Each structure stands twice: as C-alpha cells, then as structure tokens.
Amino acid sequence: MELAEAKLKFIEAWGKLGSEWGINRTMAQVHALLLITPDALTTEEIMEALSISRGNANMTLRDLIGWGLVEKQHRAGERKEYFFAEKDTWMIARQVAQERKKRELDPVVKILNELSEVKGDDKDPEYKTFKKSVTEINKLAKNVNRTLETMLKTEENWFWGSIFKIFK
Amino acid sequence: MELAEAKLKFIEAWGKLGSEWGINRTMAQVHALLLITPDALTTEEIMEALSISRGNANMTLRDLIGWGLVEKQHRAGERKEYFFAEKDTWMIARQVAQERKKRELDPVVKILNELSEVKGDDKDPEYKTFKKSVTEINKLAKNVNRTLETMLKTEENWFWGSIFKIFK
DNA sequence: ATAAACTTTCAATAATTTTTGAAAGTTTAA
DNA sequence: TTAAACTTTCAAAAATTATTGAAAGTTTAT
C-alpha cells in the first residue's frame, strides 16, 4: 500500500471510530490528519486536505484545542496560525478520558448519587428494583471513575504493566 | 424525591449518557425502564411509559435483544410477548464491552494492523510520523483489547479488587 | 488611517439519524 | 377457514446534527 493511500485509510478509520463513540467525525478526521503530519498545518491546508469549509475547519480546530488535543503555533514573521497535534498516544488517551469523564460521566454520577438517596418501602418491589439497579450502577461508575483517575496520574508502561501483572 | 420522579430522572440520565456514547437515546431509555421495573413489560406498556410508537418500540427491543441486554418472556396462555432486562450490572457492562469491541474496536485494530505493515523510507519525516502514530495507537488498542478480554472472563469483585490492589 | 491578511461567527442549508404509523405479516384459537 | 391478537416492516416525516460560505471582526504593516 502507498503511504498516501494509507494516510487516507487512517483518517477514515479514525473518523469512523470517533463517530461511533460520540465524537464528531470531522473532528476525529482533523485530529487524525494532524497526528500523522510531521509539521504544523494551516487552516487552509486542513480545509484542502479534508475538503471541508473554512467555518467547519475553524470550529473543529477550536474544539480540538478545547479537548487539549491540538495546539496553535505561531511562526515569526507570519500572520497565519499553524496547528499541530499532541503526538504522544498515552497523553491523547488520558486527555480524552479526562474530558469525557468530566463532561459525561461525572454528571451522571452526580444524579446517581441523588437517586440512591431516594427513600421508600423495602417491601415494595418497584422500590426494591429501582434501588438495587441504581445502587449497583453507582458502584460500577465509581469503580470506573477511580480507575480513570489512576490512569490520569500514571505512566503508560506502569499502568499496563501493573494491569497485566495480575491478569497474566 | 418521589419514586416516580426518580424513575423518570434515571431514564433521562441513562438516555443522555447513551446518546453521548454513540447509543441511540431511545434504546438506552427502554433499557433503563426495564432495568428499574421488577417484572417484564409488554410492547404496549413500554410505548405508553416512554411515549414512543409501536414501530420504534419494536425495533428498539429487537436491538436490545441483539445486544444481549434484554430477553423475551412468554407466559402460558398469553399471546403477548413480555420483555425484561438482565439486571446484573457487571453482566451488562461485559455485554456492552463485548459488543462494542466486536463491532467497533476489532475492525479498527484490523485496519491498524494493515497500516503498520506499510513500508517506506525511514528518512522521510512523512513516513516516520505516520508509522510512529499508527504503531503507538496500535499498541494502545491491543492493550485495551487485552484488558477487555480479561474483563469478559472475570468476576466483578475479582476484577476491581485486583485493579485496586495495585493502585492502592 | 487604510488596506491586506487572516480568523470568527452564524443563519441558512444539507446530511444524517431517528421516529412514526399504517399496512402487511404471523400465529393461535375456535 | 377465518378472524382476532399480536408483531414486523418500511417509506415518509420529523428531529437532530453537521456544514457551508459570506459577512463581520480582528490584527498587523505601511
């Protein structure tokens, strides 16, 4: 396979995975493009490479910066802004984990905590089932959160090394 | 908070979380409803509870069955089909992990494997950057896959117990 | 100040995804 | 059979989400 073809495949695959996991496809594609590009790109170049409009490119880049996955670079004597992606995969994984935890998991955990406070009659099957499900999911969510928090503080090799040491 | 209000909140929260993670909101809501309902429900009752159409209810239930999260029940002397959800949260987590791995992660890993075979000139920065990103992501994906596979084979308490033993 | 170079905004449009509901299909009982 | 009870299908409509592009905004150089 040619490098050029491989790049397109990578961008496509990353975009698809993103969209299946609740991340805008274009955003994932711009990220993919910057990941496999050695130097920083201008908005113009990104528009060109992915055939997207200026507005779309601009907003997507802003989002990616918001996720901590892309940074601006400016070059002496140039007006244009250049964009480049954090290339360290473990950093990317942590960044994404942190943002999604904050934006999506934490709010649900907050609600689950409230819901597990709801009082009722333990003889009532409606109440019992509700209580049990909420409590169990809450427990699971807390374990996931705890693991994510660990991951955020940990080096990649140590993290996986430790995990696989147990699950040899 | 009233139980009835709490139930609605739970259904809403579960639906929102689902939609943020690439799962159809209605599907997550039907699942939530069945999770907190002690006994099996008919299509009619689900339509009523969530104000959705018959077609939607039918398709959603079919999907949930396909995900292994819901089962049909039939009762002697009745024509109607009843639906109920697997209530064990760990089972749900495993079921979802397994399906998403199969449907979404595995295809990407397959492509990443192909892409990491692409040959090129190690002096070419374009090639080097591509190669490095693909290889690193591939490694991460394999670690995730390995962890998921372990999770699929493991009991809940043992899984978390083992994880937190390291990350005390 | 002015204009060129560049970025941002956002209403309108397009694309995609979800939902509806009525018709067609199936099963069971009499 | 036939008809009632129930389920499935799917084209059309609605809802949601993403994209465009031109105008407005900003910055810099002269």
TrEMBL record, chains A, B:
<dbReference type="InterPro" id="IPR052362">
    <property type="entry name" value="HTH-GbsR_regulator"/>
</dbReference>
<dbReference type="InterPro" id="IPR026282">
    <property type="entry name" value="MJ1563"/>
</dbReference>
<keyword id="KW-0805">Transcription regulation</keyword>
<dbReference type="GO" id="GO:0003700">
    <property type="term" value="F:DNA-binding transcription factor activity"/>
</dbReference>
<dbReference type="GO" id="GO:0003677">
    <property type="term" value="F:DNA binding"/>
</dbReference>
<feature type="domain" description="HTH marR-type">
    <location>
        <begin position="22"/>
        <end position="79"/>
    </location>
</feature>
<dbReference type="Pfam" id="PF12802">
    <property type="entry name" value="MarR_2"/>
</dbReference>
<dbReference type="InterPro" id="IPR000835">
    <property type="entry name" value="HTH_MarR-typ"/>
</dbReference>
<dbReference type="InterPro" id="IPR036390">
    <property type="entry name" value="WH_DNA-bd_sf"/>
</dbReference>
<dbReference type="InterPro" id="IPR036388">
    <property type="entry name" value="WH-like_DNA-bd_sf"/>
</dbReference>
<protein>
    <recommendedName>
        <fullName>HTH-type transcriptional regulator</fullName>
    </recommendedName>
</protein>
<keyword id="KW-0238">DNA-binding</keyword>
<keyword id="KW-0804">Transcription</keyword>
<comment type="similarity">
    <text>Belongs to the GbsR family.</text>
</comment>
